[in-house]
Design a protein that fits this description.
The chain is mainly α and 507 residues long. The protein contains 21 helices and 13 strands. The structure holds one RNA strand of 75 nucleotides.
RNA sequence: GCGCUGUUCGUAUAAUGGUUAGUACAUCUGACUUUCUAUCAGAAAAUACGAGUUCAAUUCUCUUACAGCGUACCA
């Protein structure tokens, strides 16, 4: 594995790249970087019916945001280009012909309707229709293995549509090697003769994929588990071309958080979390899907979370920088079973990353939110606010809700809390408190604390009797950081004003 | 249906042919003689079922169940 590791991420531009795709890209990236290799982006757009114009740019932007950019790909270091399969179209025909010549492939003229009929027939009899030697011999199929050479030529020159199919060997047991799953055994007789070349002149995924991986000198194919059933075909194709096969690793799927099945966009909508890295607008329907970026996640937290979905370092470390990940990542520690996605854990990661940021960084990120709320304040004050509230925040977007009372007087009081904490006697108690506060010359945390606590002790009442209504007066609800911090931050004047407001509103 | 793959606390996972099966998220409880969605402490919680191999299996093998993927001229 030492020399020339080259991996590729090969998505189809059929829509937004979802979490599973990002994870596949990430694992490819990590593997490449770990081995000083190259990470290639290849766009597999051989299916023109499913092509979506804004999808490719989305994929590029998403990788960019995740900080896992490709080394080679469309418009970048194109030494093995082009990197869009549609632009490589002319190339594939010759490889299909090569297989035809070598006897590893053949022409087939069956129409979709005929094949559907065969499938239905078999199903009705409780059998599976497999397009392979077994059915070839029965003479039901129309292809160059059963037709004479003249007939084939005739059909082709008559302009009849045809596909090229792979001729799967008969009665053979294949032992396949997967980097995460080990050995896999399969009988060739259970395999279909897959279409390699479509009647529209485009290769299918299977052909294009193998040809491109070979031409681009890919050393390791790391892809989703949905490709595992195609592994025998791909291995056979390498054999047919007499090319050296890359190593394969199949990643398990990401499953929905509750219930069964793989994660889909619907799950995200239903449970309230994004399944895409960036916001995505569907070109046809105009539907907008939310993204992790727009929801306020840090990309490094998002990546950290994804890295631990189906992989673990074998230690108890959970927080990793991208650099640490590239050092630690190992295909051998990728798990074989599917992983349920956990939105909660994702939030936890974001919270951890948020705590690690400095107050300066966070204050800067907070600025736009303050502007939105028509608040301006000096940088030092904002940083101080951030330092007091950040430990309760998961997102920067939480900041305003956690700190608005540092900038403006509360306009409403939590109903339940006022009922419970604001008693008959509270009003006069608060008025007394006002005079205690007025008497404090130097309004520092220490002074406020000693004077107010001293006063409470001398009155021989519980702290809660004073502090709870005071919190209500200053904050509007029973939440937030230390009260003495709040008082000294907003200042003596504002403190007194807010207490008076509360007395007026609640007594 | 057939083929392939998988199955450890609710979830993500660790470890091991012999241990009290570890950790994190979530949950519950307590603490913080002032709040909390925060923090700290604690609790509860798992080797899918059944066989076999073995002195001993959660670990190896097989059956079953369940799940996922594939079974397209889609990728």
């Amino acid at each position: 594995m030492s020399e020339n590791v080259r991996v590729r991420f090969a998505p189809s531009p059929t829509g937004a790249l979802h979490i599973g795709g990002v994870r596949t890209a990430l694992f490819n990236y990590l593997f490449a970087k770990k081995h000083n290799g190259t990470f290639v982006l290849r766009i597999e757009d051989t299916d023109q019916t499913r092509y979506v114009a804004n999808a490719e740019q989305y994929i590029v932007d998403a990788l960019e945001w995740c900080n896992i950019p490709f080394d080679e790909g469309p418009g970048k270091n194109e030494k093995f280009g082009p990197y869009r399969q549609s632009e490589r179209k002319d190339l594939y025909k010759k490889y299909a012909d090569e297989l035809l010549e070598k006897g590893w492939a053949y022409y087939a003229f069956d129409t979709s309707e005929e094949l559907d009929a065969h499938r239905k027939d078999h199903e009705a009899n409780g059998k599976t229709f497999i397009y392979n030697w077994h059915n070839r011999e029965k003479g039901r199929l129309v292809n160059s293995l059963v037709l004479s050479e003249e007939e084939v030529q005739q059909k082709i020159s008559a302009g009849e549509k045809y596909v090229v199919r792979f001729k799967t060997p008969q009665d053979e047991t294949l032992i396949l090697e997967d980097e995460v799953r080990g050995k896999i055994k399969i009988e060739t007789n259970t395999l279909d003769d897959k279409v390699l070349f479509k009647s529209d002149g485009m290769p299918t995924y299977h052909l294009a994929n193998i040809v491109d991986d070979h031409l681009m000198e890919i050393s390791h194919v790391i892809r989703g588990e949905e490709w595992l059933p195609s592994l025998p075909l791909h291995t056979l194709l390498y054999r047919a071309f007499e090319w050296e096969s890359p190593k394969f690793a199949h990643l398990s799927l990401i499953l929905k958080p509750v219930g069964k099945g793989k994660l889909s966009k619907r799950d995200g909508d239903k449970l309230g979390f994004p399944v895409f890295p960036l916001e995505y607008t569907n070109e046809k329907t105009g539907d907008v899907s939310r993204g992790y970026k727009e929801d306020g996640y840090f990309s490094d937290a998002f990546i950290n979370m994804l890295s631990l979905l189906g992989w673990n370092p074998g230690t108890e470390q959970e927080l990793f920088t991208l650099e640490e990940l590239t050092k630690t990542f190992d295909l051998a520690r990728v798990s074989k079973s599917g992983a349920k996605f956990s939105p909660d854990k994702t939030k936890w990661f974001n919270q951890q990353y948020l705590q690690q940021k400095t107050n300066e960084e966070l204050a800067t990120l907070f600025l736009p939110l303050l502007e939105e709320n028509n608040v301006s304040s000096d940088a030092i004050y904002i940083q101080k606010v951030v330092s007091l509230i950040k430990e309760r925040a998961v997102f920067v977007n939480d900041f305003w809700g956690l700190s608005s009372f540092f900038f403006e007087d509360p306009t409403a009081y939590d109903e339940k809390a006022s009922k419970k904490q604001w008693k008959e006697t509270t009003g006069s108690l608060m008025e007394e408190l006002v005079s205690v506060i007025e008497a404090i010359e130097d309004f520092s945390i220490e002074n406020a604390q000693t004077d107010i606590k001293g006063w409470i002790t001398s009155k021989e009442i519980g702290f809660g009797k004073v502090m709870q209504p005071l919190r209500l007066s200053l904050v509007g609800k029973l939440a937030g950081p230390d009260l003495f911090e709040i008082m000294t931050m907003i200042g003596k004047e504002a403190t007194i004003k807010r207490i008076k407001n509360a007395i007026a509103a609640l007594s």
